[in-house]
Specification:
By secondary structure, the protein is an alpha+beta fold. About 30% of the residues lie in helices and about 25% in strands. The chain has 16 helices and 25 strands. The strands form five sheets. A five-stranded antiparallel beta sheet has the order 2-1-5-4-3, with helices on both faces. Strand 16 and strand 17 form a beta hairpin. Helix 15 runs antiparallel to helix 16. The longest helix has about 40 residues. The protein is elongated, with a radius of gyration of 37 Å. The termini are far apart.
Length: about 725
């Protein structure tokens, strides 16, 4: 080759070639990297000496030039470390890449061509002719003139640089599978095949202790390269045979301490593994003869083995002591990343279990419900504090609750559970939605009070909640919201849209921002569909939040009244939510059914002395019409008489009596304008005070009080 620089020596290719000490003249043919026939068989991989600086030919820098079609025009890959790369003039640069990397690298090359801005220091694998791979730092430089294409400089990763880059890459994900895969890809720089097998307890996020090491169970967590393997060979997700798990565990725990080991040849591998089944499961192919097994050790007293990393090589490429040291250092540096991913997996599993525990189970006979909870992807900040709930209230109504607690992880989950349970208790006690939100607002404020010691470094300020109460008799929904997105209602005629709810600050807002919570009432005739959701379902960086809600309404309007509701809910989520999202996605669909007109009856009576008798007459006639059993016909009129008498004595205004036939029970409600709470006293049946409530208590399966804007309603349930 000509060593005289040409006039184009200022091009990126010429500058890099000059740094190599070799110059490929402009217009010269590309030199294929690799040994000549006189140098030996091209299938034999060259080894990099332990001290490359000792020989001027042991360089780590190479360069290629590409035309605008991304084909090689010139190259300088004569350094020994690039042996085996089939760099031939006119061949596509993509031929040097693993198939899975071709789209990404090609896109990056064309981007540099179009924009003219260099892309520097990309960690990349190159494919040798024998199937092995070389890890390089690749920089893409635009040529001086666009017509000259690109220059790609390649720096074979020096040991320290590779260790640093590998550790940085491995620590970028909290997903345990992705962490193991990153470790395996980094280990591939030292061999033909790399695998990571983790203790099953680590894989599932459980704790691993010294006491459990004797019964270690390994699962294959990662494997590179990604190609077709022999039948019976373990791939990611497979459990190792029990014999293999035991052998690997014993091999890396010699003298009761975790150690790296090297099995130098195929005979020794087969002798150690013994069983043909184990050999098929662990040995990747006929050419793989030697293996280095390095334990993933979590420092401690005593140390704990999280799993085993395995690097396989051919017999003509034995492991050197310095390489084994580098492998141990890399695995030691990254073992704590695996443990961090394990802890994240454990927290993710715990929070997810709590989330699913709070999901509603059944809808009852007055409505049909379906819920979908799609957690954030594991490599995100963690499962959030989204929750939905649906439960019947003792008075026959149904509570529908959706909330979104600020933050992720166990802190958000603990607050979510507390607010969810508190809301359920308050609603079951008869409080209105706005009153429940007032209590939740106070709870969030107290949780954020540093002096109370309950915050523990986590703030729930700004959490949102929406509460809806469905009355199956009047077919109305009473709703209050604290900063939450409005529910979407689909009427039986197909009209769909968000409910008109005025925005309100979230829970725990500053005192100056606090406003009274309002109660909105909407008609929901039988056949209506109500959707409560969290923002993860409708948020899209490319759309406004209003457009996201409009997309949800459009998707819901396509749900047919005869469609299975759970299937419809999953379909809506699949249409709106991406497969991988940074926030939880929660949806609660409610199809309103209500009571049939013949199953309810309502009477309004004046608060006069004859009101109890009139109520008894109305109820007795209705019970005969409903053909209820004899004891119920005797007990229920007495029950209604006592409740109406109590309303006449202690309240004013008209009295409303409502009777509902619900499944195997009868629900009786007596409403008045009084604000006193009936209480069951300690007196007996013969005492003058409180006798009526004792009768109510004895005749019913349960009873209670709920408050209204005009007074109160005393309800009681009796078996039919």
């Amino acid at each position: 080759m000509d060593s005289t620089p040409s006039s184009s020596s200022s091009s990126p290719f010429d500058l890099v070639s000059s740094a190599l000490g070799r110059y490929i003249p402009r217009g010269g043919s590309a030199t294929a990297a690799g040994p000549s026939p006189a140098q030996g068989d091209r299938t034999t991989r060259r080894r990099v000496p332990d001290e490359p600086a000792a020989d001027r030919h042991d360089q780590i820098l190479g360069v290629v030039n590409l035309d605008r079609d991304l084909r090689l025009t010139r190259c300088n890959l004569d350094a020994a470390v690039f042996a085996g790369l089939d760099a031939v003039a006119g061949s596509p640069f993509a031929d040097l890449l693993p198939p899975g990397d071709v789209p990404t690298v090609t896109r990056r090359l064309r981007q540099v061509l179009e924009i003219g801005e260099a892309h520097v220091a990309r960690i990349q694998r190159l494919r040798r002719g024998d199937g092995s791979e070389l890890v390089v730092s690749m920089s893409i430089l635009p040529a001086a003139a666009p017509s000259e294409g690109l220059t790609v400089s390649l720096i074979a990763m020096a040991r320290r640089l590779h260790l640093y880059a590998a550790e940085t890459a491995i620590g970028t994900s909290l997903d345990i599978g992705e962490t193991a895969q990153s470790l395996a890809e980094s280990l591939l720089a030292w061999g033909d095949v790399a695998a990571v097998d983790l203790d099953f307890a680590v894989w599932t996020g459980e704790g691993v202790t010294e006491q459990t090491q004797g019964r270690i169970r390994l699962r294959r967590a990662a494997l590179v390269p990604d190609r077709v393997w022999p039948e019976g060979y373990l791939t990611p997700g497979d459990d190792l045979p029990s014999d293999a798990s035991r052998l690997l565990a014993q091999a890396v725990r010699r003298d009761d301490a975790p150690q790296a080991i090297v099995i130098p040849d195929r005979e020794a591998v087969e002798r150690l593994l013994g069983s043909p089944r184990v050999i098929r499961a662990l040995v990747p192919g006929d050419r793989s003869a030697s293996v280095a097994c390095i334990p993933l050790v979590l420092d401690g007293a005593p140390p704990v083995v999280l799993g085993v990393a395995e690097v396989w090589r051919r017999a003509d490429y034995p492991f050197r002591d310095s390489e084994l040291f580098d492998l141990q250092e890399l695995v030691a540096r990254t073992a704590h990343h695996v443990d961090l991913a394990r802890q994240h997996q454990r927290e993710h599993t715990q929070v997810l279990a709590l989330q699913r525990r709070l999901l509603p189970r059944t809808g009852g006979h007055t409505l049909e419900i379906a819920s979908v909870y799609q957690p954030a992807t594991p490599d995100s900040a963690g499962v959030g504090g989204d929750w939905v709930n649906s439960f019947p209230l003792p008075d026959g109504r149904t509570a529908l609750v959706v909330g979104d607690v600020v933050g992720h992880g166990l802190g958000a989950a603990a607050t979510m559970g507390q607010l969810s349970m508190e809301a359920r208790a308050l609603l079951s006690a008869g409080l209105a939605p706005d009153e429940v939100l007032e209590h939740l607002d106070e709870t969030v404020t107290l949780l954020d009070d540093a002096e109370s010691g309950l915050a523990a470094g986590y703030s729930a300020l700004g959490s949102t909640c929406c509460i809806a109460l469905y009355d199956p008799v009047s077919h109305h929904v009473a709703l209050s919201s604290a900063g939450h997105l409005p529910p979407v209602l689909v009427l039986p005629d197909g009209r769909a849209g968000p409910l008109a709810v005025s925005p309100h600050p979230g829970l725990g807002a500053e005192f100056a921002l606090r406003e009274p919570f309002e109660v909105y009432t909407f008609g929901a005739p039988p056949g209506s569909l109500l959707a409560l959701y969290t923002d993860g379902l409708v948020e899209d960086p490319a759309l406004s939040i209003d457009e996201g809600i409009s997309r949800l309404a459009d998707a819901l309007s396509t749900v047919h009244p005869w469609d299975a509701l759970q299937q419809a809910a999953r379909h809506v989520v699949s249409v709106l939510a991406p497969v991988r999202q940074r926030d939880d996605v929660t949806l609660l669909l409610v199809r309103m059914i209500g009571y049939r007109k013949g199953d309810t009856a309502t009477w309004r009576l004046p608060a006069r002395d004859d009101a109890p008798a009139r109520a008894r007459a109305h109820v007795s006639a209705l019970l005969r019409q409903w053909q209820t059993r004899g004891d119920t016909r005797d007990d229920l009129p007495l029950l209604v008489s006592e409740l109406v008498t109590n309303a006449v004595r202690f309240a004013a205004g008209p009295i409303t009596v409502r009777l509902i036939r619900a499944g195997h029970s009868l629900l009786c409600e007596v409403g008045d304008t009084g604000n006193g709470r009936p209480r069951l006293s300690r007196g007996g049946l013969l005492d003058d005070g409180g006798r009526g409530l004792h009768v109510v208590h004895r005749l019913t399966t349960r009873w209670g009080v709920r408050w209204t804007d005009t007074g109160k309603v005393v309800w009681a349930e009796v078996a039919r």
